């Protein structure tokens, strides 16, 4: 028997921002000493997907990478956790914008919402209906909400949990890096120098909290028109990106071309990797998944 979120008796305050009917134990962030990292219940490997700047296609890459991992030989059990508290994108990208609030187990844990065979959890499911609903929380509330999303979800057993991070180096990535044993991270960028500058900050942040940086993904690296095979570098040559990765000592996992269908798939809630269209794009994404899984 499952319960619906939320219980009328549940209170929303800084210790329980999601309003869960029962608080489960979560690690606290001590004031002076580093917290002890722990695993996420029923999850073998945790992969963070991040970006230094918004608008580079990070969430789209995260969702498609989750499916690409699940398509590898052995059929890994994969889920995706959307930790973008203020601007969650996973519900729309997964075709779950109208999924409603998730059910709860008898123990008070959130049950993932599933579509296309992939289990998901997002702050977007917990907000009141209406696209204009905004989360207006200070840092402590955000930290507590992240803790609840990390430790109060019943994933039922996953090989890999892909965590879609908010852009930048704020409270959410720091909380994840301090509390959870993260097995790897992928940083997404576009070729522009302004995006690369923030990538360097993201790498520095992950290294500071001892999160392994698996590699970089260059999104929208080039465009190939339908009438020729010549790549057009709309946002600058990828050479600067490759050189920056080399100087930072980080691998480039793949360079995804700019394909209109990727955006269309996100808007329609059908991740592009599921369509099998554009062999080049899908081949690059499969290659990224293979490299990521080999490193975890």
UniProtKB/TrEMBL annotation:
PROSITE patterns: MRP. Residues 16-38 are annotated as: Disordered. GO terms for cellular component: mitochondrion. Residues 21-31 have a biased composition (Low complexity). Keywords: ATP-binding, Hydrolase, Iron, Iron-sulfur, Metal-binding, Nucleotide-binding. It comes from the Eukaryota. One of its GO terms (biological process) is iron-sulfur cluster assembly. The keyword Iron-sulfur applies. GO terms for molecular function: 4 iron, 4 sulfur cluster binding; ATP binding; ATP-dependent FeS chaperone activity; hydrolase activity; metal ion binding. Belongs to the Mrp/NBP35 ATP-binding proteins family. This is P-loop containing nucleoside triphosphate hydrolase protein. The lineage of its organism: Eukaryota, Fungi, Dikarya, Basidiomycota, Agaricomycotina.
